[in-house]
Amino acid sequence: MSSDPAGAPAELPASLDDVYSFLGPSGTFTEAALKQVPEARGKQWRAVNNLGEALADVVEGRSVAAMIAIENSIEGGVSVAQDALATIPGLRIIGEYLVPVNFVLVARPGTTLADVRTVNAHPVAYAQCHQWLDRNLPEHGHLPASSNVAAAASLFEGSAADAAVAPPGIVDHHDVVVLADNIGDNPNAVTRFVLVSTTRSVPEPTGADKTSLIAELPDDRPGSLLDLLEQFSTRGINLSLIESRPVGDALGRYRFVIDADGHIRDERVADALLGLRRFSPSVMFLGSYPRADGMRIEFDQRYRDEVFTEAREWLASLTDEAPSA
Fold it and tell me: Reaction catalysed (predicted)?
């Protein structure tokens, strides 16, 4: 069932361009990220049960875009999202959004902290709260949930859990009591979300951009990863993220999820992608888009656009025939 940001049922939209998918139900951090998208305001928001359903909405035309979590400042990359982007063709990242993350422990009315034996929590949320839970509930068990809001909702749906890890605003959506506030192990935790679509257009460069891609190593040999990294270092490009994920067809075969500072229309980035394409048997361009933090990219001016343009013109001049007399 589709729903608007407030969670109320809604009629099917006149155009699928008006539909955005997010991990529901209403009240999740993913919904908080979608609220940051200007183009999504006033449009239809479709709450889904998992990341696979969100991306299927986009690929199969039920939504124009989907918001998914891609990285957390504590746990690193979200592997299920990285693997999905690596294996589902045609997806593009068109924007990124940051959401500060903290959690509360909630329960059914009448429950006390001393009553809690089992906690329902999304695996990523549980990982970010496990130190608090281990310290305050040393004998607790964990039941995984599909989302942070679903964990709280399950308390009223026959769940065996006594409590749930949920977002601070959960009390606006469910009749729960808060047993403890700020149970996240790191008060500075932030989750990075990306808006994914099938559009082929690329946002214009802003000077504060990021380029995401996935590349495989050509073979398993000493120095192979160094060869990959040199495609960026020799062009003065900083990598803000690089994580390995198994390709899955054999042991020792890995692909690398990469975020590079800059835009595909920057000469240094374009030249690096050309070098990477010559080197790697598989390169997936996931998109160039504005950074969520708006931080302008600083780089050595030896790699500014004009240097690459002049070099190409110089090379072309070497084979130009001299004008006839």
Answer: prephenate + H(+) = 3-phenylpyruvate + CO2 + H2O
* DSSP string computed for 11-66: PPPS-GGGEEEEESSTTSHHHHHHTT-GGGTTSEEEEESSHHHHHHHHHTTS-SEE
| Contact indicator for 152, 175 with CB cutoff of 8 Å | no
Question: Is the pTM higher than 0.90?
Answer: no
Q: Do domains 104-180 and 209-312 have the same CATH topology?
A: no
- The span from the CA of 49 to the CA of 122, in Å, is 12
CATH class of this structure's domain 209-312 = alpha beta
Give the H or E element holding residue 196. Answer: strand 190-197
Superfamily of the domain at 104-180: Periplasmic binding protein-like II (3.40.190.10)
Q: In what order do the strands lie in the sheet with 141-144?
A: 141-144, 118-121, 163-166, 104-107, 177-180
Query: Nearest 5 degrees, angle CA 51-CA 56-CA 59?
Result: 130
